[in-house]
Amino acid sequence: MGVLMSVLDEEKYDLFFGYTRDTLIKATCLNLIVAAADTTSVALTWALSLVLTNPDVLRKGQDELDTKVGKDRIVQERDINDLVYLQAIVKETLRLYPPGPLSVPHEAIEDCIVGGYQVKAGTRLVVNLWKLHRDPRVWSNPSEFKPERFLPQSGGGESVNMDFRGQNFEYTPFGSGRRICPGIDFSLQTVHMALARLLHAFDFDTVGETVIDLTEGSGLTMPKVTPLEVHLKPRLLVTLY
Q1: Binding residue per annotation — 29?
Q2: Which of 39-43, 75-79, 105-109 has the highest mean predicted lDDT (pLDDT)?
Q3: Which of 62, 54, 147 is nearest to 96 (CA)?
Q4: Cα separation of 81 and 83, whole Å?
Q5: pLDDT, tens digit (0-9, with 9 covering 90-100), for 85-101
Q6: Which of 50, 52, 200, 207 has the fewest Cβ atoms nearer than 10 Å?
Q7: What does the alpha-carbon distance between residue 230 and residue 113 come to, in Å, rounded to a whole number?
Q8: In which pathway does it act (predicted)?
Q9: Are residues 19 and 43 in the same domain?
Q10: What is the residue range of 232's domain?
Q11: Is residue 119 part of a domain?
């Protein structure tokens, strides 16, 4: 807040693009707080849905939590770096269901040729991240939920060195370069912590005999077409809840 107030000098500028300084500061602060809420909740819903439809993944995730954290306390932020399999679950979730399946639009600044296509200067370009993340030329069994592909020591591992931060252009769930999502750290921190605490603290049962529907809905953040409904059963000491 102090930085914004010092940058937007009220005495020097009366209006910024038609808005007052206070309006811009309020809008910026609000955006910082709520901008990642929708994408984060959608990512967490997909992560839980994928884990619950793959019992072996759920077991491995809970075993890691029981080993690294124990069952006599709850997960803390300092534990996340040690939870390698949990991080792989999040990476694989964001590969299959990136927070924004289409990238932020870019504009070609000069005539060029991309993949054999002529692109004129001024053309608006959008990258289909959903398709990129499922390209069989890059990913083995691309439609399969396989966190092990991000682990070095197991049968997968072909993508072990890929990171979220846009250094690997075949895996860019948050975009890349100067236009990378500014909320990446907040989003990742929230998803890792929420997923870790849920898997650590509860066992899950689907409602009735219902199989979890993985159909994709429409929208900028590609939510599930149906809500995720499960029963939770505590698996830790009652004093921890």
Answers
A1: no
A2: 75-79
A3: 147
A4: 6
A5: 999 999 999 999 998 88
A6: 207
A7: 49
A8: Alkaloid biosynthesis
A9: no
A10: 38-97+129-240
A11: no
